[in-house]
């Protein structure tokens, strides 16, 4: 919230020093004690040389059809000649003049430009008449659009030619932009912020006073209110003000609004916004004459109901959930969020109804999120407003309408609901405070902190009974009181103690080391890490899951319709990442992700969390360039399988085998394998089903997903380094004629089981099918590599072992050695 320190001083008896250095010290103190400060600034920033000028004369420019020549009085002995193209300039106006030599901010660069005298179509111009947007005002807070012309003061603003325009406009007022946490709803109001700052500087707060004059006309004769359910609005009342004159607000009110980051609209709307900023209590004004009945209803939206809100958007309301204020025929506004266009206060409005209420925070938050309509009002209702200030703000707004819009406040406040708030009284003892904070505070010391906070309390001598104020909705338990004591005492003043007890050196667990090693290995194999959402849709949650039951882990209150369910696999998220990259013209993709998946249990049990790692490949293995066009090759099953094999080898898993499978619904039935370490199932690898990738207009995508807990249990505790043998290798080649039904994995398994421990590698280097082979047969050529780490191999020993392997192949697989 943007907090003008000059405005805040009105409630703190001008006790805040507005000097630049003092403001910086205050901001630093606020950050240490209360909330973070985003920045400290003024609207003027480093600008200077702007004055109030009175337009004395306006004559047409002799050489232009859109510019005029003006003579303006800036409090100097002679008038100043200024040429301007402003469409709204007129004699007698009080406007803002940037004099020659003035420093004006450049909107694009943020730098200051020095204004110089110029000739415009042959006429000298000694300055520039400006709109507020030209001197640092954002269009969101400027009261008039830039196209309407220069800013013109009202004659009632009590300003004179030659006055410093920056000061007159409040642009030199220091503003603290506080970065509030959701629990500090009290600091969304100037009075609440005053209590907070007053506690820090030990200054009491002066709450603003007002006189409410009621006229003879009864409010109850003009409007009545019916609340369907008190849970929708535990407090609701309205005031009626007749014969208002809608126009611009006085300058003092406009300054307060734009320094708070709000745009002045008209005096009625500005009063409701002023009350919201002052009390933290949102109000809303209806045009009474635009209502099609005298009765207002606070109810839930009905089936098929729609509303045109003030931003010009048509909102389809959700029956039974959105709260609306309505007449007999139609909804007028989304309660607590935004008003409706049909009952908007405009320049023709003569009679108004001002509403003050507390709406159900949960329903307001749900409505604001559903309609993507987060307003200043909804931000306050969601966090909780001051229960005791609702009707005070309503009466104050009615009083100001009388003062600033010439209205007549109808007699009586029409109150539909006024649920009383139960006081919360909490005891606190010095022993408990000192036990928690490590201090040596007495009850008198503690009572002093509550006095600073303006909390009502009774010191019984053995404890303090504290009554929590309605403005502090964030407080409810003893720990909240102790926190208040700690921050006012000063966190940096709390005694520092070392932890008591034996110390142990910190280190990673075996599981943590394996997980970190997995990420390093994946990246060393050429994959980039991706981080996907844990929450997804029920369909994607089970897309590549091992257990495809209908039971999933869902949220009771999801943030959106596509983030309702905890994932049961990682591949679905990686596939979304592939789609995103391809849509952004990145086609060669190698990604991995490591994270938790969540398996649902019975209704009363938490889900089982399992650590997984998954990866995907798509596109080309190497880039194709005009110099080396033949190097481009599309990735295939063996690329992804090679990554899995290298990872398992480096992580310490031995005796890995791959078994062809078609049980994974979303994987290619002919290019997918389950992965085992002996009999332990680790995961799967293969091509994602073409029907799935083609629907996303993707090239072939290959992926794997492994259960990291299973991998860790199968991995050796330490991966040992094996030295390279100093002795030469021997190779033996063999060509086998086998049935096409015999898989390579079976042949390799027989070779390794039969051969001696001198066999170090088996390589399939040729596969032939076609002419000159019997039907249903194929030729497979293998190279067997032998090596001994201790001595040179003896050829006779290798030949004997090689013969034993060939005989085993013939006997067990019925192959023919060619």
UniProtKB/TrEMBL annotation:
Catalytic reactions of this protein: tRNA(Phe) + L-phenylalanine + ATP = L-phenylalanyl-tRNA(Phe) + AMP + diphosphate + H(+)
Annotated TRNA-binding domain residues: 44-166
Domain B5 residues, every copy: 421-496
Domain FDX-ACB: 725-818
GO molecular function: phenylalanine-tRNA ligase activity
Source lineage: Bacteria, Bacillati, Bacillota, Bacilli, Lactobacillales
UniProt-recorded name of the protein: Phenylalanine--tRNA ligase beta subunit
Cofactor: Mg(2+)
Source species of the chain: Leuconostoc aquikimchii
Residues holding Mg(2+): 474, 480, 483-484
Main localization category: cytoplasm
Gene name of the encoded protein: pheT
């Amino acid at each position: 919230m943007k907090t003008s320190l000059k405005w805040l001083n009105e409630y703190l008896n001008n006790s805040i020093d507005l000097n630049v250095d003092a403001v910086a010290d205050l901001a630093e103190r606020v950050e240490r004690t209360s909330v973070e400060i985003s920045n400290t600034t003024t609207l003027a920033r480093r600008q200077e040389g702007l004055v109030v000028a009175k337009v004395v004369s306006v004559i047409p420019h002799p050489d232009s059809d859109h510019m005029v020549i003006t003579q303006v009085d800036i409090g100097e002995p002679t008038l100043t000649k200024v040429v301007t193209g402003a469409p709204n300039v007129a004699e007698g106006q009080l406007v803002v003049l940037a004099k020659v030599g003035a420093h004006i901010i450049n909107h694009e660069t943020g730098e200051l430009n020095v204004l110089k005298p110029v000739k415009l179509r042959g006429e000298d111009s000694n300055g520039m008449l400006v709109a507020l947007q030209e001197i640092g005002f954002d269009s969101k807070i400027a009261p008039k659009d830039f196209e309407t012309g220069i800013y013109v003061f009202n004659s009632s603003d009590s300003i004179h030619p030659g006055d410093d325009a920056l000061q007159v406009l409040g642009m030199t007022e220091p503003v603290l932009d506080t970065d509030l946490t959701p629990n500090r709803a009290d600091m969304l109001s100037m009075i609440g912020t005053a209590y907070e700052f007053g506690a820090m500087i030990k200054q009491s707060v002066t709450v603003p006073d007002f006189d409410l004059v009621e006229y003879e006309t009864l409010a109850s004769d003009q409007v009545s209110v019916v609340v369907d359910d008190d849970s929708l609005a535990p407090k609701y009342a309205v005031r009626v003000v007749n014969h208002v004159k809608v126009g611009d607000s006085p300058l003092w009110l406009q300054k307060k609004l734009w320094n708070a980051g709000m745009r002045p609209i008209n005096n009625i709307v500005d009063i409701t916004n002023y009350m919201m900023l002052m009390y933290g209590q949102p109000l809303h004004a209806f045009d009474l004459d635009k209502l099609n009945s005298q009765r207002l209803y606070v109810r839930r939206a009905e089936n098929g109901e729609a509303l045109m809100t003030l931003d010009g958007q048509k909102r389809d309301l959700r029956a039974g959930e959105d709260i609306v204020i309505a007449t007999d025929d139609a909804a007028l506004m989304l309660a607590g969020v935004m008003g409706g266009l049909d009952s908007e206060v405009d320049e023709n409005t003569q009679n108004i109804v001002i509403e003050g209420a507390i709406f159900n925070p949960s329903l307001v938050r749900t409505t604001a999120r559903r309609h993507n309509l987060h307003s200043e009002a909804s931000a306050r209702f969601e966090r909780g407003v001051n229960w005791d200030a609702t009707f005070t703000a309503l009466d104050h707004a009615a009083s100001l309408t009388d003062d600033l819009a010439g209205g007549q406040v109808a007699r009586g406040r029409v109150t539909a609901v006024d649920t009383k708030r139960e006081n919360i009284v909490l005891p606190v003892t010095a022993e408990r405070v000192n036990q928690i904070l490590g201090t040596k505070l007495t009850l008198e010391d503690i009572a002093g902190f509550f006095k600073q906070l303006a909390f009502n309390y009774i010191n019984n001598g053995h404890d303090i009974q504290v009554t929590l104020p309605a403005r502090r909705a964030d407080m409810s338990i003893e720990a909240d009181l102790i926190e208040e004591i700690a921050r006012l005492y000063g966190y940096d003043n709390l005694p520092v103690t070392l932890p008591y007890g034996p110390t142990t050196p910190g280190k990673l667990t075996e599981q943590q080391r394996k997980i970190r090693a997995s990420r390093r290995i994946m990246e060393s194999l050429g994959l980039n890490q991706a981080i996907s959402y844990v929450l997804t849709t029920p369909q994607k949650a089970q897309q590549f899951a091992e257990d495809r039951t209908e039971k999933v882990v869902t949220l009771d209150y999801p943030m959106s319709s596509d983030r309702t369910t905890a994932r049961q696999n990682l591949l679905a998220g990686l596939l979304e990442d592939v789609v995103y990259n391809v849509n952004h013209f990145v086609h060669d993709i190698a990604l991995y992700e490591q994270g938790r998946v969540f398996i649902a249990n019975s209704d009363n049990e938490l889900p089982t969390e399992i650590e997984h790692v998954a990866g995907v490949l798509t596109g080309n293995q190497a880039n194709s360039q005009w110099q080396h066009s033949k190097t481009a090759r599309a990735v295939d099953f063996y690329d992804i399988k090679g990554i899995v094999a290298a990872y398992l080898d480096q992580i310490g898993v031995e005796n890995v085998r791959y078994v062809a499978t078609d049980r994974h619904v979303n994987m290619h039935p002919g290019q997918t394998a389950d992965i085992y370490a002996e009999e332990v199932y680790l995961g799967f690898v293969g091509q994602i089903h073409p029907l799935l990738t083609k629907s996303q207009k993707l090239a072939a995508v290959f992926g794997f997903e492994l259960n990291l807990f299973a991998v860790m249990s199968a991995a050796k505790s330490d991966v040992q380094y094996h030295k390279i043998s100093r002795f030469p290798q021997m190779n033996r080649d063999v060509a086998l004629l086998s049935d096409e039904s015999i898989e390579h994995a079976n042949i390799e398994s027989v070779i390794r089981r039969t051969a001696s421990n001198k066999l170090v590698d088996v390589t399939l280097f040729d596969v032939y099918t076609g002419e000159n082979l019997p039907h249903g047969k194929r030729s497979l050529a293998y190279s067997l590599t032998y090596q001994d780490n201790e001595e040179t191999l003896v050829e006779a020993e290798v030949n004997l072992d090689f013969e034993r392997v060939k005989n085993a192949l013939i006997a067990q697989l019925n192959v023919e050695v060619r």
